[in-house]
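Dear colleagues,

For the upcoming journal club I promised to circulate an example of a predicted protein-ligand complex. I picked one with zinc ion because it came up in last month's discussion. The inputs are reproduced below in full, followed by the predicted structure.
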Amino acid sequence: MTDRRQELEALRDELIDRFDRYKAHKEQRGGPLDKDMEDQSIELQNDEVVEALQQEVEDELRQVMHALKRIGDGEGDLCERCGEPIDARRLAAVPYTTLCRDCAEPA
Ligand SMILES: [Zn+2]
């Protein structure tokens, strides 16, 4: 099994970095945004778009921090709702999830 905590910590750092760039951009003293954002540079001049992206990053970051805390508590592989183990393939695909597939996507 890959080290999920390491993966999440890397993701956390990346999200914090992105969050700071959006913040800097909004404050009009920022450097360039992510290179994969260049295509959207026109849209990104719109503060509302930046605001939405920042919100998205913030939500994801909150998820990552939550997942890291659960891993720290030794519960990282268990579903937060039903307590069943979360499928390893799901954890690999969505490392910050804290719900099993059944709970995340109710039929
Ligand atoms: Zn569940």
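Two points we might discuss: Residues 79, 81-82, 84, 99-100, 102-103 surround zinc ion (CB under 6 Å). Helices lie at 4-26, 41-44, 47-72, 88-93, 101-104.

See you all on Thursday,
B. R.
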